[in-house]
């Protein structure tokens, strides 16, 4: 994880301290159930909690042990024994390292998802607020980067709201899928451990039971999770790209908030660069790059190999940390985005009414022209306007083939913005119904 | 799509004939509603259906027109006018090409998903059947490719069943997400078309209404769809890899069915190669490679650019066709897999009882040894067995430090396969409960 | 390969007819050398050439045989025997299928590279021509989409020329790497075939000898090849993105050529959309998506597995065909690009001289201001100009802190375009030196 | 970068301290040349070196300034002014941040490449040593995981040697491509800076001059670099996969060195897992995942946008650090690999001579059988042997159709390992010629 793109809340989930705390809880809850089953002494389970529940695990010490034994769980258990004493030998009975590691990863990924959902909510709230604010702020809609027809800035934001709402639902499903616990032993058969231990730990840790595991929780769950993040990242990229376009010198319909003291360019002091959204574009790539390795991780050999582990040590923290940061940066951009309605109007006027061309086309057809003919009539009056030769409206009114079908009055009526915004409420009702 | 990895059912969904048929239906249903609204003559809507509902669209003719006008929808509409006659000018009123293209793509992707779900069902049925058949077929479980503890072949298959069941659920959700209709005009504002046209077409085509579109249906829906395919492909790879491993000369616990007349190797006639599952491994890569470009497609400029189109012309058919083929090939592999239980037993016996080591470790701990001591005792008797020096059981019985804690009788009891399979029913109940 | 993005020259390389022709040549050349070595009768080698050199191989017949024997090379050899007769039994002696398949793939990928290099040359020639034409066509340079300082359109194109020249060099290296022949038998040991057969075939087919093969030519060669294509595709995307930006309604400094009869939009007849470059953006994604599976293909099991094969049946033709098409489409765009120098000038003037701000900053520093102070002075005169309040030049001349350091005359001199273009020749000399 | 997969040598290249040191050198060398040109006072250039050449830059202080000004280069320059004093205002004259940032990145990536080349050399040396050691260690070659024909362990290693040698050459080329310096100002036109500054700094920093830059060094160079790393990572995966296969319980022809004190499994103490090569498999995925975002970074907008920056902050250090670690881990695996020649022989004998089947096939063909007939004869004697019914040699000798063509003596001669190893020297001469 790159420090400058890291929020401490998310980093904390992935810290060693947090990891060892979760490991402890899994082991201690498992011991509780084993004690109930009579597999280990009740007293042992009690002592484990008493001695270690409040203890600070010594990360450096565990690292030191690991360097010797080259096995992280054994290193942790050894350190736990240093804290708990003799009863520690009852910990981890019949369990395998992956029971602890994988269930812990589930807990971390679940917590990370929760934090990401909070971030999504902030983005959604910002989008909704600004969308309502600009529901009627008319601007030109563009396809292929070319002026098409009028829309409103609120509608633009509504498309993002709906998209992020979908992303949130997918994330919630990914969260549900990853929130599983497996304590099933070396090859998933519960040979050395009773299935009720798994059920007990799952319940205590807020997880569902993995119906069948090998030595590990199957990696299709993780792959689906990272894929959900990848799609959200791509939606972030879409919104970031929109802002970057709107902030271009020639367009300038909106701008990232530029704080006092911030310097845009070491060389060109007047420049206000959309660096936050450019940065978000890059972060989207970073988050997305985890998707393929997460999918490559699925095909583990037989009951498991450990090839997924190094991948997850990377993408687990990195993808969630960078996406978390990106969501909050994005929310900030949306919340503080400076919008220039006058400029939107100016840009729309620039093409001399060409944005009303489709309506003219339609009116001509309805007045009896064939589609082909209407197209030709519009084009021969539109192209000069496009080149700056006369306004489209004037050209039409001066074309006798057009006026043979539509009167000047009828043509003028077609150049009406209200025509384009009349269904905005329908859209807003659909998107913001709840 | 690669012909040899193509089933005609899926190819048909993506054929030009199928595409133009869907385009027609969208246009004709839209005309119906426009007629009801009085936007176009009722008679026109009727004639459109009458003249074209049964017509064969001439793909070559449409291609010819497209070469001239360089626009596929206009080419189609021109050809439609050749069939329908004068009333054709009422078709497509107030609509934009993307209304047709994107809704059509939704229909195709929805149908493709349905076909894929059928394929998933076949795989699931095969897995369930073989899992139940081999519920008690004991074989060694392996982690890191190394013998671990016994499991059953049925449990192995159960893990795949559960994984494909998850894949199916994700696919169903992706299907639901893509089954949307957008007929909202040039920038999504319904300026030239009434929203009820969209509602009507959606209903007729079996789709939901897209709450807010730009000119296009937002591509996060498509990205999520291809990601769902990518995860399924990865699960296919996992199962394919399992079979490939089991068919290795040294393992040979299972084998792809080898039909009469099939030749394994041009040079080595005895060879039976797992070529189907190797092929599936490659197909998984092909399906997976669509995920990133599908995500790159999300960030279209403003109300749309057309960069996604060429990508989708490739990955739309290719990913669904190849995955469809892969699912049926996989089902075939599972249905006909030749399983060798005796060889499974032989392989399990090969390590002289080492697979019972964890149970011995556990018993020693319960008999009072510290975890560290138990580990040492097991290891010093296991390692010689591993090197082929004495059976593990004999070594243990000859180690006085061990026998100080466990009698020979008590040790022998630990070498019992039933111990490892006692919870298989729990697993099967969880996985196959419905 | 998508028909509309396919040029027949490249498709031909990947046709079945072409493949079988290459297979035949490999087998026949191998037979020649084996005859020289006395392994097979000289007469046999002669008859093989005589009977089959001019023969048309019957693709449908080979397909039919393959459906039965499920092995493509055996199917081909069987068909060859139908043509050649009894002597056909001397063909393929001691060879393995991969000897033929892999060497053939090398030939195809080499020929594909040659065709791609031709395409690169066309792009380079177009870029050079237009760069020289517009060497002095001044336009604004933009960082972050914001006006920065003046450059020339020729310099823009020169950056692409240099980039494509690098791409070509990498492609030439990839071509050299893939142009290898392996005829080394079932596990690469030349057990059943003399190494001189490989040397002979290599020479005849215009290839180098693979120093050591397993059963196959190692796939790192292919991965490097597809990676080289992926980087070129990314450069295409950069140029396509540049054109798309320049063609935006608000910028309109350049435009794709719009042919007579072409229709831009079914709904908005005036629109001229940069659809070629948007399409190129998508094609870039399609080409790039082959890179990861090509890399996943490297880690074949032991002396080979066949997982790479289905991948290569897809990406081999698709990536080269789509890149080939993209290069020619790109060349076409560059050759015919409509450039609007007046609009470039207009856009540059829009910010009222702000593009000269760095030079002012520099002059202030050289006149004794600290960097911090100079920055402040520039910014306080630049920001109003940015908001449309006064021209930058006028603002500066009205700021007494500025004029305390620089006279009005000295300030005016700083607003000189020639200052920015004085080193263009240096750049052109570097880039177009040969 | 993941600490446990990080070697300090590589981490140092990417440290803040190292970065600021390089920034300083670029600025100071630039100042030297500017002083020569008379753009800044000679004394200033001298003072800059004197005051800062030995200085420790205070990373925390620079961070603090950056938090305020939100611009890293300005923060550094401000801190430099704190060290150098008044003369600092002559630093960075006419330069733009990217001149410093991009040239620094080139230096870092060049140094990283050098370190990676050292790692490659270690891998190559280990492979060569072990290949020569095992040149004649016969083992079975496998295609599709199935026994094919004999090869030697040395030949296996030779294929990797040749592959890594190619990887090294590609890396050297990538290094050459990235070793460029750009000091060309805000849009690459040298408006405010003389081109000779760039030439001077390039020479001093051991770089070539970038012939034409925009504001940045073009990212195709970086993409090619990360692609080169990705192919090497894939080769690592191939070798890791080979070792993992050889270490499987059923194969056990080689094993990773298992150090004293290392614990294989917390539950199964006898297990020796190929965890290093499994880990390398995962690291390969991590390195490879940088390739696509590096390619996505190419298409920056106009003269630059900053979307690449966050990506490179991630993949720059991560990919080089993880690959560096992987190379040394791999070298370690190869150097210490425990090889079991007896087991190789045992495995080879397991199939009762089936590995000689192709030679028998060939001999039958040469004795007059048609290819089809020979295939049939071999297969009907091979398949029983495959099922464990009789040795292949015995079966053949008992088949009168076979003995009608080949005498028992002639058949026996075909079962000769020497036949398979006779060309090993040819291969070794090719691979290790230098």
Automatic annotation (TrEMBL), chains A, B, C, D:
Catalytic activity as recorded in UniProt: (2S)-2-[5-amino-1-(5-phospho-beta-D-ribosyl)imidazole-4-carboxamido]succinate = 5-amino-1-(5-phospho-beta-D-ribosyl)imidazole-4-carboxamide + fumarate; N(6)-(1,2-dicarboxyethyl)-AMP = fumarate + AMP
This protein's pathway: Purine metabolism; AMP biosynthesis via de novo pathway; AMP from IMP: step 2/2; Purine metabolism; IMP biosynthesis via de novo pathway; 5-amino-1-(5-phospho-D-ribosyl)imidazole-4-carboxamide from 5-amino-1-(5-phospho-D-ribosyl)imidazole-4-carboxylate: step 2/2
Record key words, sorted: Lyase, Purine biosynthesis
Highest taxon of source: Bacteria
Domain Adenylosuccinate lyase C-terminal: 352-432
GO molecular function, one term: lyase activity
Pfam families in the record: ADSL_C (PF10397), Lyase_1 (PF00206)
EC number: 4.3.2.2
CDD domains: Adenylsuccinate_lyase_1 (cd01360)
Protein family: Belongs to the lyase 1 family. Adenylosuccinate lyase subfamily.
Matching PANTHER family: ADENYLOSUCCINATE LYASE
NCBIfam families: purB
Name listed for the protein in its UniProt record: Adenylosuccinate lyase
Organism encoding this protein: Hyphococcus lacteus
Gene name as annotated: purB
